[in-house]
Amino acid sequence: MDGAAVWQIIDEERAGLADLLEGLDEEQWAVPSLCEGWTVREVAAHLSIGPRMPLRTLLVEAARAGGRFNRLVDNTARRKAELPREELVAELRAAVGTRRLAPGQKLADALMDVLVHGQDLAIPLGVERAMPLEAARVSAEHTWRMGFPFHARRRLRGFRLTATDVDWSAGEGIEIQGPISALLLLVSGRHAALPRLAGPGTDVLHHAAHNP
């Protein structure tokens, strides 16, 4: 995918998520998401931050977090989540059409972020949210190769991942098959993808998830 096509998908995802969030009630905003420790509200807040964060603010937040990336992300999302939900929706919608990335972020990161976090919201809410196949394939490949923070190749060493709806595979070992959207969630650390996957490797992962 070229840059223009990636930005178009990001715009469509942001607009669709803003529509979804706008239709939720307060109880739904408090539903736990697939991101550990975050509700729908914190995920919505996180999605609205990236396109608006200047480098200076990022440096201040990094210092507050002691240089720890995950703490920085958590802190900024929780602080942002204190805003009224209408403001969070408005900020996410205002990001549609921007071509600005968060400091240090790559375009492939932004694509993966909005696709995965869209499912972090939708799945716990029982909302079906289809992923564009080519965008999901690009994001799965990017996530598989990127290392930090997901370390997919290390976590999934000994497994062979094969998509059933696009031409994509990764790894070597026990077979795991399924739609590329579920494999993207798997490589980004979401075990909620397992019910949509098949193959002998899924039994191994199910056992590991329930016996940490």
Summarize this structure briefly.
With 212 residues, this protein is mostly helical. The chain has helices spanning 3-22, 26-29, 40-49, 55-64, 69-80, 85-94, 107-125, 133-146, 152-155, 180-187, 200-210, and strands spanning 158-163, 169-170, 173-178. The chain has a three-stranded mixed sheet with strand order 2-1-3.
Uncertain runs: none
Radius of gyration: 17 Å
What is the H/E order? HHHHHHHHHEEEHH
Domain count: the total is 2
The description of the largest β-sheet is: 3 strands, mixed
| Structural class by SSE content | mainly alpha
Helix % is 55-70%
Write down how many β-strands occur, each being a DSSP E stretch of 2 or more residues: 3
Q: Please tally the helical runs, counting DSSP H or I stretches of 4 or more residues.
A: 11
CATH T-level topology of the largest domain: Four Helix Bundle (Hemerythrin (Met), subunit A)
Task: Let me know the average pLDDT.
Answer: 92
Which CATH class of the largest domain?
Answer: Mainly Alpha
CATH evolutionary superfamily of the largest domain: dinb family like domain
β-strand amount:
5-15%
Termini Cα gap: 38 Å
